[in-house]
């Protein structure tokens, strides 16, 4: 059996503790030059797409703006439209919320990006669960969490109806007037539980038919949504066995929606650290993690789970000896703090006791995503092993430096994957659907 092709993508680091701000090589997350550098690096490496996240409100901690991760967040589609003029093949993926937008507006913006880029647009469909974010919008907090995927599903289906309202094909002459038009030419009518709209869509069908759809939810509803409607899953499952279980589960859901396993690409978010030797790479990785999780960050993260002010505790000392306050909490705008905090706290207490971890060491352990660490050859081998053993179809790399964090990967690891014959030597088509092997949407 031939080796599976590997898919690679780049994620521009957003507002979080991924970026090592103190590094002399760390640059702006606002200047357009930073976006250009990372996007062009990804294109030089023949990556499938460049991915931007979305932030609809600045996070807060204990009622104040969380100053450890305030960088601002330029609007994704605007940035990608600008990047379409300085790239030629790289896919351009934007996160756009389905809770606080409308299908007509989003479908038009994405179809426009698809035209501007020559067929390289992608949409990461996300939902918003919290009233805190909703306060920035007129409908703040109105949507129950259980209903968010109902809206997202109908939102996506409505957008597809709008894209399909312009039929593909050549212009057709009216037999009476002789005027030329495309069949359908934008007329639509959608009557559903979430949306009831009629009219004419004003953006002709894009080069891909439909932009590529990305999804990142991990709940049972999210997995079903992806199996039915997504082209790519941006997964958080990076540890090998966990990733294999997720891969198997999601791929098994495709058949009930009449889809083949290869019609959905699963791409976990990962990082990497290279070194001259395995030991050198491990030392560098440990240093990066300690810089990503500084003392203030460690305490702030723990406060999100404990629901208490823990500023009096030593980040390099033991975990707090008090039980968590499971009320409203002290952190706003972080999805990870909305689950079963009591269970998480008790799990961490047991882990810290078993391994003798300090607060900072525990947070480093808890917040780390899958990282490929080693020499260029061993990292290339690790990436290939994941894909060939059905733990992933590829990876979305989230560098720890902006904007040069992918330079070493593209320079030293990608050529080794190309030598293995598991990654493209060049682009074979102009559109993102071509890169992903999906074919044009009908």
From TrEMBL:
Molecular-function annotations in GO: monooxygenase activity
Segments forming domain Luciferase-like: 25-389
Pfam families: Bac_luciferase (PF00296)
Highest taxon above the source species: Bacteria
Alphabetical list of InterPro entries matching this protein: Diverse_substr_monoxygenases, Luciferase-like_dom, Luciferase-like_sf, NTA_MOA
Keywords: Flavoprotein, FMN, Monooxygenase, Oxidoreductase
NCBIfam families: FMN_nitrolo
Family membership noted in the UniProt record: Belongs to the NtaA/SnaA/DszA monooxygenase family.
UniProt name for this protein: NtaA/DmoA family FMN-dependent monooxygenase
Native source species: Actinomadura meridiana
């Amino acid at each position: 059996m031939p080796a599976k092709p590997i898919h690679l993508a780049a994620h521009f680091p957003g507002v979080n503790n991924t970026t090592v701000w103190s590094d002399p090589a760390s640059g702006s997350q606002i200047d357009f030059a930073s976006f250009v550098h990372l996007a062009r690096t990804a294109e030089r490496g023949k990556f499938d797409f460049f991915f931007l996240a979305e932030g609809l409100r600045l996070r807060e901690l204990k009622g104040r703006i969380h100053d450890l991760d305030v960088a601002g967040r330029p609007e994704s589609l605007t940035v990608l439209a600008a990047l379409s003029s300085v790239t030629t093949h790289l896919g351009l993926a934007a996160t756009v919320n389905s809770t606080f937008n409308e299908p007509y507006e989003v479908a038009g913006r994405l179809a426009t990006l698809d035209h501007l880029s020559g067929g390289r647009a992608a949409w990461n469909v996300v939902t918003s669960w919290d009233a805190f974010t909703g306060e920035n919008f007129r409908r703040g907090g109105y949507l129950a969490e259980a209903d968010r995927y109902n809206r997202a599903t109908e939102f996506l289906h409505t957008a597809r109806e709008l894209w399909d309202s312009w039929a593909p094909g050549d212009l057709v002459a009216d037999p009476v007037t002789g005027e030329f038009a495309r069949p359908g030419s934008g007329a639509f009518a959608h009557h559903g539980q979430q949306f009831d709209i009629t009219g004419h869509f004003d953006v002709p069908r894009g080069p891909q038919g439909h932009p590529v759809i990305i999804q990142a939810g991990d709940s049972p509803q999210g997995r079903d949504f992806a199996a039915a409607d997504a082209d790519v899953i941006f997964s958080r499952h990076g540890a090998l066995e966990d990733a294999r279980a997720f891969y198997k589960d999601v791929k098994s859901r495709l058949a009930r929606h009449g889809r083949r396993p290869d019609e959905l690409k699963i791409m976990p978010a990962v990082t990497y650290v290279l070194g001259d030797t395995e030991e050198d790479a491990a030392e560098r990785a440990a240093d990066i993690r300690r810089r990503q999780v500084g003392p203030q960050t460690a305490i702030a993260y723990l406060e999100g789970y404990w629901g208490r002010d823990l500023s009096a505790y030593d980040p390099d000392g033991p975990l707090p000896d008090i039980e968590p306050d499971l009320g409203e909490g002290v952190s706003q705008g972080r999805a990870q703090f909305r689950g079963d905090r009591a269970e998480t706290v008790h799990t961490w207490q047991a882990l810290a006791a078993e391994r003798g971890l300090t607060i900072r060491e525990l947070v480093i352990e808890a917040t780390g995503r899958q990282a490929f660490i080693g020499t260029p050859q061993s990292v290339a081998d690790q990436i290939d092993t994941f894909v060939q053993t059905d733990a992933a179809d590829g990876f979305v790399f989230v560098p720890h430096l902006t904007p040069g964090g992918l330079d070493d990967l593209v320079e030293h690891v990608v050529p080794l994957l190309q030598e293995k014959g598991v990654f493209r030597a060049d682009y074979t088509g102009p559109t993102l659907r071509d890169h992903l092997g999906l074919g044009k949407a009908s």
